[in-house]
Amino acid sequence: MTLLQQIMWGSLYLGLCFVVEVLLLVWCTLVIVHLSIRLRHLSRAMRTAAVISVSLAFIVLAHTLQVWLWAGVWIWSDVLTDWNEALYFSLVTYTTLGYGDIVLGPGLRIFAAFAAVAGLLAFGLSTAYLVALMSRVFEGRLPR
After folding, report:
1. pTM of the prediction?
2. Domain 3-139, what fold?
3. How is the chain classified by DSSP, letter by letter?
């Protein structure tokens, strides 16, 4: 891929990851509001545990879907040949761990870096979401 193609396709998949993250966090918020209202008869500790558990499940799902999205890119474009290798590479790139045992050629390095940027942005957004949620929990402002 040319540099321009890498930037274009990388931006596209980065945008798709952003859409996945935002949609799942919005869905999570709707579920939490509904859950908080339905569980109002439980103790505050139980409601808090439920809210934290649901939010963490949605966040893990969002990150997992994004890793699978990037793995699909590597498989569909014939860069990596099997799903195990593609998922592994996607996960270590998305989390910015980057072991370096699988290295792409120069024509894909910029494109692959977009997977790391997607992970950084998604982890940042997830962290901000959890901080905002926990602030509401500690202030006792969840729906009752």
Report:
1. 0.90
2. Helix Hairpins (1.10.287)
3. --HHHHHHHHHHHHHHHHHHHHHHHHHHHHHHHHHHHHTTTS-HHHHHHHHHHHHHHHHHHHHHHHHHHHHHHHHHTTSSSSHHHHHHHHHHHHTT---SSS---TTTHHHHHHHHHHHHHHHHHHHHHHHHHHHHHHHT-S--
